[in-house]
Specification:
The chain has 289 residues and is an alpha/beta fold. Helix content is 39%, strand content 20%.
């Protein structure tokens, strides 16, 4: 599948991560001679989907432009256990300084991409798409959404600014489903409008109000089927249906089989498990006097 576009905030995200880790300077790297040279390889210790090359590269570009990195796989590639994913060469001190920050990005984003691939594969052939959510690690929203796309799932809205998602408290404050949808259309006619419902009568209100997407919150399988059937009884309606709420990998294909268009899964980004990657160094140090 094609690699998605890189987000624009990679350099600033990496700068914050390095400031957090390096601070005023890497005091341990001072033990290595300033003119020392090193080579290293990064090995993936388990099967995974690779993701995060640009963040890894940006770490070392920030520390020392003399460091050269040769990648053996692209973002989105399936990696077997014990695969070398890249080779590095350059000044020893900055190579050592950047090790943890660079691996943190690569491990975390590969973890997100790997989970996204499992969920996307589980619904393959159903016509349903798996969506991510805003349940991301603070500061890594754009990076994790990139990783989700590398894994084959689909990005939902990026934040509170690019689409409306009208939930229970919004509905209460606006005076009901119909009133909330009407206000959304009036205030932001240029944006996609999605609304959350918890019952079939609420679904009918949302369809009457012309929602672009209706989120079916914690519907059982029978309820999802009934919702799909209700929509199909309106052949001119272009509303799409999204299932949401405590979705697990082992049950997602059953949900997709009900005929919903989307399934949103917070676990893609919030239950983050880093992939086991390690960097192995060979130091070429100058002779001591």
């Amino acid at each position: 599948m094609p690699t998605p576009p890189l987000p624009p905030d990679i350099v600033s995200t990496v700068a914050l991560a390095l400031a957090e880790d390096v601070g005023a300077g890497d005091v341990t790297a001072d033990l290595v001679p300033a003119d020392g040279h090193a080579r290293a390889v990064v090995v993936c210790r388990e099967a995974a989907v690779l993701c995060g090359r640009a963040w890894f590269d940006a770490v070392y570009a920030k520390l020392d432009e003399a460091i050269r990195i040769e990648w053996c796989a692209e973002d989105g590639a399936d990696i077997d256990a014990e695969t070398v994913v890249c080779r590095l060469e350059g000044p020893a001190r900055p190579l050592l300084t950047g090790e943890r920050t660079a691996l943190n990005f690569l491990q975390s984003l590969s973890g997100t991409a790997t989970v996204a691939r499992r969920y996307a594969d589980a619904v393959a052939g159903t016509g349903c798409r798996v969506l991510d959510t805003r349940k991301t690690v603070p500061g890594l929203r754009s990076a994790q959404k990139y990783a989700v796309a590398c894994g084959g799932a689909t990005n939902h809205r990026r934040g509170l600014y690019d689409a409306l998602l009208i939930k229970e408290n919004h509905i209460l404050a606006a005076g009901g489903i119909g009133a909330a949808l009407a206000a959304a259309r009036r205030i932001h006619p240029e944006l996609v409008v999605e609304i959350e419902v918890e019952s079939l009568p609420e679904l009918q209100e949302a369809l009457d109000g012309g929602a672009d997407i209706v989120m079916l919150d914690n519907f059982a399988l029978d309820g999802l089927r009934e919702a799909v059937a209700a929509l199909r009884r309106r052949p001119d309606c272009r509303t799409r249906l999204e299932a949401s709420g405590n979705v697990e990998l082992d049950g997602i294909r059953q949900i997709a089989a009900t005929g919903v268009d989307f399934i949103s899964v917070g676990a893609l980004t919030k239950h983050l498990r880093a992939i086991d990657l390690s960097m192995r160094f060979q130091l070429d140090l100058p002779p001591r006097d």
